Each structure stands twice: as C-alpha cells, then as structure tokens.
C-alpha cells in the first residue's frame, strides 16, 4: 500500500512539475514572438505615414477632379444652350410654315 501511495505521489509531483514547466516554456515562447515596444511603435508610425500619404494623394485627386468639374459644367451648359437654340429655331420654322400654309389657303 505504501509503495502505491509513493508512486501516486511521485506521479502527481511529476504532473505538477511538468505543468509548471509547460507554463514557463509557453511564456518564453510567447515572449520571444512578441515585438517589443520600439518595433511596435515603428510599425505604427510607418502605418500612420502611409495613411497620411494616401490621404494627401486623395486630396490632390479630389482637387484635380474639382478643377476639371467647372470646365465640364461650362461645356455642358453651352451645349444645352445650343440645343435649346436649335429647338427654338425649329419651332420658329415650323410656325412660319404653318403661317404660310394658312396664308396660302
């Protein structure tokens, strides 16, 4: 009976020791793969700079689009005016034709 208890105690002690070792190894492993604060800060700064660069490029493109917008709007207005003048001329010609037809009758 004493031998069995001793084996059980030794087994429990081994389990306890091995679980402590596992936790210690796990902690060492996780610490070895964690970037330190300097690396993290450098990466964060790099990403911030990339975002700022993309935002600046976007603003430039928006300004470029805005500068193109007004000439295009001007050309569209001009085209609409020409189209409306053509329509008015056709209406006038049609009205003149109707007046001539009435006068000829």
From TrEMBL:
Q: Point out the coiled-coil segments of this chain.
A: 44-71
Going by the UniProt record, its keywords in alphabetical order are: Coiled coil
Keyword Coiled coil annotated: yes
State the name under which the record lists this protein: Uncharacterized protein
Please spell out the taxonomic lineage of the organism that makes this protein. Answer: Eukaryota, Metazoa, Cnidaria, Anthozoa, Hexacorallia
